[in-house]
């Protein structure tokens, strides 16, 4: 385990909060443990392990786009995810966003509260279920999404430029197929 941590560029003995905050290390270790049953540690190559590669790729792509909207608009990844989901539906509950994005419910709530304070979203109690809070974009929230969305499309195009044209389409199809497999 220590060797694996060091290969990942992590301290041999992480502080309690180092990985536990996000739970990434423990989730990764569970996947690694399952995938490596019956093989020795010397047979396992983390850099070649698909879940690891996808996690790193996702993180790098997300961080690249986050730098753009954070610098220009001062919003966080969590806030962007809430705005993006609200742009797809008229009203969405915090619970729905939490489930779709797989983001911590408390993180989703805090992002929604910051967006409400900034005037980008409104919060209302659901008429049918008072335990649920419905979020909706305000006019300024829609305007913000209208500014960020084209930047996202440009960023996506730049990321995909790393692949030759026929492979871009194949890559996008493969991503959709993998996502459907895990639904």
Class per helix and strand makeup:
mainly alpha
CATH fold-level assignment of the largest domain: Arc Repressor Mutant, subunit A
Q: Strands across the major sheet, in which order?
A: 1-3-2
User: Total strand count, please?
Assistant: 3
Largest sheet, strands/sense/barrel: 3 strands, antiparallel
CATH class of the largest domain: Mainly Alpha
Order of helices and strands: HHHHHEHHEEHH
Strand content: 5-15%
User: Alpha-carbon distance between the termini?
Assistant: 31 Å
Assign the CATH architecture of the largest domain.
Orthogonal Bundle
- What is the CATH superfamily label of the largest domain? Winged helix-like DNA-binding domain superfamily/Winged helix DNA-binding domain
Taken together, the total number of domains comes to: 2
- Write down the overall mean pLDDT: 83
> What is the share of helical residues?
55-70%
Low-confidence stretches: 1-9, 11-22
Spatial extent as radius of gyration: 19 Å
Number of helices: 9
Tell the overall outline. globular
What does this structure look like?
With 183 residues, the protein is mainly alpha-helical. It has two domains: 1-48, no CATH class; 49-181, Winged helix-like DNA-binding domain superfamily/Winged helix DNA-binding domain (Arc Repressor Mutant, subunit A, Orthogonal Bundle). It contains nine helices and three strands, in the order H-H-H-H-H-E-H-H-E-E-H-H. Strands 1-3-2 form a three-stranded antiparallel β-sheet. Strand 2 (121-125) and strand 3 (133-137) form a beta hairpin. Helix 4 (50-73) crosses helix 8 (139-160) and helix 5 packs across helix 7 (105-117). The chain is globular.
């Amino acid at each position: 385990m220590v060797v694996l941590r060091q290969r990942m560029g992590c301290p041999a003995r992480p502080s309690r909060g180092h990985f536990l905050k996000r739970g990434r290390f423990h989730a990764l270790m569970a996947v690694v443990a399952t995938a490596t049953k019956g093989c020795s540690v010397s047979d396992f190559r983390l850099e070649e392990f698909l879940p690891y590669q996808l996690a790193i790729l996702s993180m790098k792509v997300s961080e690249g786009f986050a730098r753009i909207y954070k610098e220009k608009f001062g919003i966080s990844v969590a806030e962007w995810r809430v705005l993006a989901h609200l742009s797809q539906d008229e009203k969405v509950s915090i619970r729905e966003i939490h489930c779709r994005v797989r983001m911590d419910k408390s993180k989703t709530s805090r992002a929604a509260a910051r967006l409400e304070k900034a005037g980008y979203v409104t919060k209302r109690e659901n008429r049918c279920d008072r335990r649920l809070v419905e979020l909706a974009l305000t006019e300024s929230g829609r305007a913000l999404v209208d500014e960020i969305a084209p930047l996202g499309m440009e960023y996506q195009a730049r990321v995909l430029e790393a692949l030759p044209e026929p492979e871009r389409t194949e890559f996008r199809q493969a991503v959709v197929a993998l996502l459907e497999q895990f639904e």
